[in-house]
Structure formats: structure tokens, C-alpha cells
Amino acid sequence: MRVGAFLLSAQFPGQSHAQALDRTVAATLSAERAGLDSVWLAEHHFVPYGVCPNAATLAALLLGRTRRIHLGTAVSVLSTTHPVALGEQAALLHLTTGGRFTLGVGRGGPWIDLAVFGSGVAAYEQGFAERLDLLMDFLRGSRVRGTGPQFTFPEVPVVPRATQPARSGHGELAGWLGLRAEPAMRFPRQRTEASPAGPVEAGGGEVGLGGPPVVVACTTPDSVRLAAERGLPMLLGMHSGDEDKLRMLSCYRAAWRACGRGEEQLARVEREHVAAGVAQVADRTPAARATLLRSMPGWFEYGLGAHRTVDGRERKMRDPYAYTELLCDLHAVGTPRQCADRLLATAERTGLRRFALLAEGSGDQEATLENIARLGAEVLPQLS
Q1: Which among 211, 191, 215, 213 is positioned nearest to 203, based on CA atoms?
Q2: Is the overall model pTM greater than 0.70, yes or no?
């Protein structure tokens, strides 16, 4: 099992943008010290729900400040980003960090972002497949061209080519830049498996020729089928319980087999699905739930309530308190033993082995760092 932290750079009421981003940086360093497998970064525009506007850029900063942990985007929004520009960023990070970067992509929402960045509502409603295909053409090929309808351009060479061998060794950006090496550090380790895109050593060693791993955020049957048809693993949202996960996995397998792909490759790709969730560790379960119920409803109301649709369409928002209670019921919230049991139960029932757990639900930096430390010291050992 591979357990990572999910960080939205959430701006809780009363906090500044700088405080939210500083908590993300500190939490990532804490996650590496705690032995977590990965950190997943969210991307939002114009809302306090999350104040990081470019997850790949923040991942670049954090890859430079860490030595072992993997960084992923959850997600980079393709509806407001040129796929080739995003592919260039992903290839750059893949090649300079020994393969420690994973690109998660999603469709996003019908938000005002589409008007600000000029892509329009069609990019959200009909354009995701074309954008994903263009991105993958860049990441897996040597030349790329746009054939429309959203992108039409002549063939150009792919530079840098993500399919070329990445730098071997420890995958440290500081080492690649020729900076002074720090003394070797030891971390608790989780078992890792080869990516379907190519074998990657857990410590950032020799990387295969498949380019950076890519996962697709899936919230609807259409997005599940698209991911399966492209042979890419899914990122499942934190609102999904085990029953919903099973339905989406069943839909994925049906779409995969309909394409005529083999079972052995399916098994490899299924090991790379990622399930987002929530983690809050405390000595007593009521204390863990109370921490989240004090902070998260206000953040949901403040952050999600700020979304504006691009075309004035009506949007419905979940009841913030009820949604927080649901997340507490679904995920790893409670004592270390209960958190481990919850993760193990989901893994046993669904077969999912990778988790991205929202660790900043308290809204407080020190509490977030303590939560991550306890996740590493008291929960991970029970997942062996």
C-alpha cells in the first residue's frame, strides 16, 4: 500500500493566502520526514477553497526541497491549460527528478476560469478527450501536431522528450544542478510497485522509457470510460465511498475489455489507481471527528461558495456540515488503529492500494504537521 498526503492549499477563514501556501510547503516536508509515499497538490483559480493556481509549478518547488517523496498534481485542469504547455512542464519535472513526478489531470468545472483563460465552456463540456490525447501524444512521442478542432498547429519536435532516460541516481534536483550533497537520510519505506508507464525505483533510481505517470480524475461514467480507453489509471474523489469505488472500477474494467486489452496489463494499471480521502489521527475517535467538524464546514462554505459559473448556470452546494460528517464516516478519521483498519478495509474490498489523504482538515499548520507525523509513525506501520 502506498499512502500519500493530499494538500489543497486551503485558505480557512481568517487566514491569508501566504499562510495557506506556507502550510502546504511545511506539510510536504513533514510528509517526507514521516515516510509517506507521496504528496498530491490541488489547483484552483479565484476561490479560497484552494489558493494554488498551478499545481505543477508548486510541485517543482517542492521537488527541489525534497529528496525522496513523490509529488503529484490532483489535478492539473486541462480545460484551462494548453496540453502541450502542461506536457512540457511534466516532462521537465520527470527528467530532472529521476521520475518523482506524477501528472494528474482532470476536466475541472464550469467555472468562470473558462472565460478568464479564454478556453470557453466548450473546452469543459466537449473538449477534454482532445486535450488529453494531445497531452499524451506529447508525453509519449517524439513529434506532435494539433489536428483540431480546439488545437490546430503543424508538427513540431517534442522537447524535452519525457521518453528519454531520466537521470539515474537518487533523483535529487539539487544533485542534478550540481549543488552540495546533503548527508544521506533514512526514511520509513512503503512497498512500491512498477508503474505501467515504466519501472521506477522507489528512491528515484533508474527510470524507464515511458515518461511521467499520468492519472485521470474520474467522477462520472464518461470520464471512467475515457481513462480506460486511453489505458490510464483513475484518481477517485474523496466523496466516493467503497460502493461508489466498486461501481467505477467495474465500469473501468468493462471499458478496458471492450477495447480488447489484456488482463495482465489491466492488473498492472489497476495497481496505479489512486483513491483520495481524508485522514485525521487522534487518541480518541470523537476528538478526531470534532477537529474536522470545527474547521471543515466553515472552509467548505467559505471556499466552495465562492465558485462562479461561466454562464450563470445554477449550481447546488452540499450542506457543509453534513458533507464533513460524511467524510468522517467514509475515511481514516479516528485512532491510529481505526485509521489503519479503514484503509485496509477499503483495500481489501476494492483492491485499491494507493491513497491520497487530505491531512490539513484542521486548518491549523501545527496540527496538520502533527497529523502527518502520526500518520507516518502510528498508522503506516499497521499497513505493512
Answers
A1: 191
A2: yes
